[in-house]
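Section 4.2 – Deliverable D4.2 (structural model, holo form)

The reporting period included a commitment to supply a predicted holo structure for the target in complex with zinc ion. Inputs used:
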Amino acid sequence: MGRRRVKGRDLHCNRIVGYNGTTLSTAPSSAPQFPFHHGRVALSFVGTVGDRGSVATERIGTPGALRAWLLAAGLIAEAATPAPAQLRRALALREAIARAVRALVAGGAPGELDVDLINGVARRWAPRLSLDPRTLTVAHATRTPIETALGRIAVDAIELLGDPEERSRLRTCGLDACGAIFLTPAGRRERRWCSMERCGNRAKVTSFRTRSR
Ligand SMILES: [Zn+2]
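Output (structure tokens):
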């Protein structure tokens, strides 16, 4: 997966109504965009809403911003622009994955409607290849690059949700304001924050300020 940063000006978007009906703030152009430190692309997709535990910043609220994220994630090779319906489908898929992983971290189970939605995207759009036995050429089922990208994210979510070992490594970031869900690395020291660089340092600054009061 690519981890290119995308320039802030590519992501400029107006305030929009967010996933839970609240108004989301626009990502400041100086902030690092598009984090990919969550351990799986499906979780980084969930992470396109920053600071879910507080201000909830929408990073892919426009077709152009979704395109930029898919490019940064290495899920599309060309600058195909999502149609408005594809953007809506992408946000619905993202929130279904978000609710499913949050339920698991809280010790519960994903809702059936959310699992149905994830399965539905995978069934319709997951990459499907076939090999011609004579010419040995690969034929791809007819889909747009955006649909294929969403299909790949849905498959990634299914692989995560269906793997007991990975489910056991799902964690919520220790910084309440962030609230990102990430995979703590297997067989290594438990990670407290989704990213030491981002949230670990923010937590240190907060506790330093509290102590200095
Ligand atoms: Zn975090």
